[in-house]
Amino acid sequence: MWERWTLTAAVIGVVGSLAGSGRAQEGAAKPVRMPLDEARRTVAMLNDAYVNAVVGMHTTYVKDAGSTPAASVARQLFVAMKKQGWPETRWLSTTGRPLNPDAAPKDAFERDAVAALNKKQARFERVEKGRLRVVTVIPLVDKSCQTCHARDKVGDPVGGLSYTVYLKQ
Ligand code: HEC
Question: What is the pTM of this model?
């Protein structure tokens, strides 16, 4: 599994550097800032796109425990989006035992979001330090997820997507 992961990451890296002939090559772009209303709508749109992409990748390509998880491909996409200055997104684990240790909550906001998601809240937001922060729940969709997330039950929150959007003051 790890070899295929690495290969996928390498392929995405190559495609990414070919595609990023403009801003990306000059390093990370400045974060795009937007008013609060627009920031909320943008998160809603990104969330619909990401969740549908992840579920589509999962059902199309993930056949067994040796497959590259859709979450890994999505993580590369989040890096590419941030590099262009678009809102930041990262995976968050709600279980206390993330498959990727980097998905553990990193600060007070994410810890509070995990507590809310585990109480069946689907969305958690806070405006702090000039940023809109939102976490949306990712439930364990069906049994096919248990191939790798073996200890989680169908329907339980297994994680979330944690968004940060810089606000225009
Ligand atoms: C082939 C194994 C596999 C399958 C099947 C799988 N996952 Fe994952 N999942 C992983 C791995 C490995 C990671 C860590 C990925 C990374 O960060 O690169 C992960 C990460 C996640 C995360 C982020 C939190 C964490 O634990 O790192 C969520 C949420 C998640 N998966 C949900 C799902 C859902 C929902 C399904 C079913 C639709 C699913 N996964 C199916 C292997 C899998």
Answer: 0.88
